[in-house]
Design goal:
With 195 residues, this protein is α+β, with helices and mostly antiparallel strands. It has one domain: 2-Layer Sandwich (Heat Shock Protein 90), CATH 3.30.565.10. The protein is built from six helices and nine strands. Strands 7-6-5-8-3-2-9 form a seven-stranded mixed beta sheet. Strands 1-4 form a two-stranded antiparallel ribbon. Helix 2 runs parallel beside helix 6. The longest helix has 18 residues.
């Protein structure tokens, strides 16, 4: 799969994009990206005392060129035409908005990826309101296997009222429920969750 910018007519159709309103929604968007990347194992770690979360998968991974596109609006590997939006159940996420939206609600978003079949690990740090300013680089530490790790640091820092009003136990319960739902529809995928 190659990542490319959505055509203007498709962008217009889905302009509302993804609005991240909860920790569970953030986790679900990242896990669905993992599933779309062919992951057979997905790990989710949450530390609400620091408002941090991490999703690790063993999917295809991203090469340097694809990683450089990630985080900008309307970048996706799953949709090329309006017809792809109508009844296409092949992919879970298709709008090219999840990473870009999550990036806007945190201090920073770190992506570390090792493409399948390559011996190089790449990383990229994304900050809110800085589209295209950050380039992926070869990581100093190597991932042991192919796949992608996404770390969200200080989620909702740009929305202090939302962050303050998070009910930690409720958020954790919502994440558990969402992961159980994903596990039911994808029983071949092993999902791990830790606090």
């Amino acid at each position: 799969m190659q990542i490319a910018k959505l055509p203007e007519d498709v962008q217009s159709f889905i302009r509302t994009g993804v609005t991240i309103t909860s920790i569970s929604q953030c986790v679900v968007e990242l896990v669905l990206n993992s599933l779309d990347a062919g992951a057979s194992r997905v790990g989710v770690r949450i530390d609400l005392s620091k408002y941090e979360l991490q999703v690790v998968d063993d999917g295809y991974g991203l090469n340097l060129e694809q990683l450089n596109l990630i985080g900008n609006r309307y970048m996706t590997s799953k949709c090329n035409t309006l017809a792809d939006l109508q009844g296409n159940l092949k992919y879970y996420g298709y709008r090219g908005e999840a990473i870009a939206s999550i990036k806007q609600v945190c201090d920073s978003l770190i992506i570390i990826s090792k493409p399948k079949g390559e011996n190089v690990t790449y990383s990229k740090v994304l900050k809110p309101n800085e589209d295209g300013n950050y380039k992926a680089v070869e990581a100093k530490l190597d991932r042991p296997g192919h796949g992608t790790t996404v770390v969200v640091i200080n989620v909702f820092s740009n929305f202090p009222v939302r962050q303050k009003q998070l009910q930690h136990s409720l958020e954790i319960e919502q994440v558990k429920n969402e992961l159980q739902t994903i596990a039911l529809i994808q029983p071949q995928v092993k999902c791990l969750f830790s606090l």
